[in-house]
Amino acid sequence: MHDIVIVGGGPGGYASALYAHNFGLSVALIDDERPGGTCLIRGCIPAKQWLYVAEVFSTVSHAAEFGVVTEQPSLDWAAALARKNQTVEGLVRGLGGLLQKNGVEVITGYGRLAGPGKVEVESEEGRQTVEGEAVILASGSHARTIPGYDFDGEKIVSSDHALDWPQRPNRVAIIGGGVIGCEFASFLVDVGAEVHVFEVMDQIIPGSDAEAAKQLQRQLQKRGVKFHIGVAVDAPKVGETVVVPFGEESVEVDVVLVSVGRGPNTDDVGLNTVPAEVDQGFVVVDLDTMQTAQPGLYAVGDIVAGTPQLAHVGFAEGIAAVTHIATGRPRAVNYQAIPRVTYTHPEVAEVGLTEAQAVERGLEVETAKHVFNGIGRAIIIGDNQGFAKVVSEKGGAIVGAAVVGPQAGELIHELMFSVGWEAMPDEAAAFIHAHPTLSEAVGETLMSAAGRSLH
Ligand SMILES: Cc1cc2nc3c(=O)[nH]c(=O)nc-3n(C[C@H](O)[C@H](O)[C@H](O)COP(=O)(O)OP(=O)(O)OC[C@H]3O[C@@H](n4cnc5c(N)ncnc54)[C@H](O)[C@@H]3O)c2cc1C
User: Fold this and answer.
1) pTM, rounded to two decimals
2) What's the Cα-to-Cα distance from 281 to each of 85, 152, 253, rounded to whole Å?
3) Nearest CA-CA partner of 161 in 238, 263, 259
4) Ligand 1: residues within 6 Å at CB?
5) Where are the alpha helices (DSSP H) in 155-281?
6) How far is residue 353's CA from residue 357's CA, in Å, rounded to a whole number?
7) How many angstroms does the Cα of residue 244 sit away from the middle of ligand 1?
8) Which ligand 1 atom lies nearest to the CA of residue 15?
9) How far is the CA of 37 from the centre of ligand 1 (A)?
10) Contact yes or no for 141/262 (Cβ under 8 A)
11) Using one digit for the tens of pLDDT, what is the confidence trace for 46-91?
């Protein structure tokens, strides 16, 4: 009998397993592959490695603008793929070592709940029942598709396949202009592919600040991405190439990448053996504790109903669940201050409410904005498009922020504090930013939000 049995070794599951050692709890972690999950093996990490390959390629291609003369670079795709695999392997192995060091028993096999406190594990060796005082379900998610676009791994692919393409595709249609679709568009166009992005909503990265999404779209368009916004595609014609029809028009490509969202892995995890509530496949939990309707059964990560599907949300929810198991006290995640980053070039990073969401909630808000155009550091690095934007309640605290531009994913974190601590613009603007840094764009925005400005 363990203190905690965890099903799924992605960020939600492995963070729970690692954190449990703070309380001296014994843990069994069940995964049907090596722990790492979507994030380490076919998500965040490999996707960001490919984006960095594109960044290096682009930097070298434009080196002459800085007086550095090189041959036009070419891309050794096999070497880039090997680099991606090496990064993933290093992190997966490192995680394995950490779990071992923390005394976590890793069990390889497929786990299903088999009543309160029981998980039946199926593996090549047979079946065994693993028991725990508490069970955390962290089985993660899988790529969804749309009718007519069943994945075949070659012509119609998900991000899982695209991260392992053996060579660069020449022409790609991306169905879905959300975070994953835009990240692939940014990477592919920068390494020379022809890219079409289809988005059925009226903006890319739906739900994001509309101005930030427009800025990203404009910059990707300038580099050659063709956007089809507010457009629903019809079923494709798959042959040597793939024809993607939409309305009276169509595009012909070599491969279609479908990125229309991710569904929870909860169909076959034994949820029918416990009285936990499930909503369209997602597990309903008490967000103060991550506990389901079945006492002692917790859910964290991408399977949780109504919380963002992000690795760091999985980490935070794992910490919340383990804290409740160990202490009986809630340690709720502050969902209001979770940074959300799209790692395109330029990056788009947000925290808290967008202006539109704040208005929808009936808040009277004001916004302040500062562009990167005049920021010395941005000019030095030749990457000075975009802006920082702060949304605050009229006469009140900062409720949200967006940054689109160089290093936005790093810069958003000081705004995370502002939103998380419900800082007044004047309080946040009182701090001095070093010169010349990109973070001056944030400093200047905060000053404007406080009713003053410098440049
Ligand atoms: C291309 C891509 C890029 C992404 N980039 C980012 C990013 O930059 N930043 C970010 O925050 N998020 C990103 N994400 C999302 C992030 O990967 C997920 O939010 C995160 O991995 C969810 O963690 P999880 O623990 O809930 O589930 P997962 O990571 O999906 O892990 C679940 C694990 O459980 C195992 N499993 C499932 N069912 C069972 C079972 N019954 N028995 C045993 N094992 C089981 C699976 O094999 C898997 O290892 C990205 C996702 C994709 C696809």
Assistant:
1) 0.97
2) 32, 24, 33
3) 259
4) 7-13, 30-33, 37-39, 43-44, 47-48, 110-111, 138-141, 159, 180, 265, 269, 301-302, 309-312, 314, 343
5) 159-162, 179-190, 210-222
6) 6
7) 29
8) 25
9) 5
10) yes
11) 999 999 999 999 999 999 999 999 999 999 999 999 999 999 999 9
